[in-house]
Design goal:
By secondary structure, the protein is mainly alpha-helical. Helix content is 57%, strand content 0%.
């Protein structure tokens, strides 16, 4: 898969293609994923978020039916306009889980990453 702005989104693309091919996917708690290159500074981390968001949106648009992509999410203006709301919704969903409560101080960072991703 050759995506502009780096190769990102391939895990989402692969997951959809495997489901379409009839494979049943399972969570493997012992699986380890190593990402390269390491994101060792703020600049590389933000670049990763922006590029990941860009490419994951491309994957979502490629597989609109599988993701049940709403109309407004098919347009750049819709995502830009609603990104603060989408980020808030996603952040609240993450911290709805009691296991996330000890990390409440990270809420602003989580929210910011979701806005950047959108």
């Amino acid at each position: 898969m050759n995506l502009s702005k780096g190769r990102r989104g391939e895990d989402s693309d692969w997951t959809i293609r495997m489901k379409q091919a009839g494979f049943e996917l399972h969570f493997g708690p012992m699986a380890v994923v190593r990402h390269a290159p390491l994101r060792a500074n703020w600049s590389s981390l933000i670049r990763h978020w922006v590029h990941s968001g860009y490419n994951n949106i491309r994957v979502r648009l490629r597989y609109e039916q599988e993701y049940q992509t709403p109309f407004w999410a098919k347009r750049v203006w819709g995502l830009r306009l609603l990104s603060p709301v989408i980020a808030l919704y996603t952040t609240l969903a993450i911290f709805k889980n009691r296991l996330s409560w000890p990390y409440w101080r990270s809420i602003p960072i989580v929210y910011a990453t979701k806005v950047i991703y959108c």
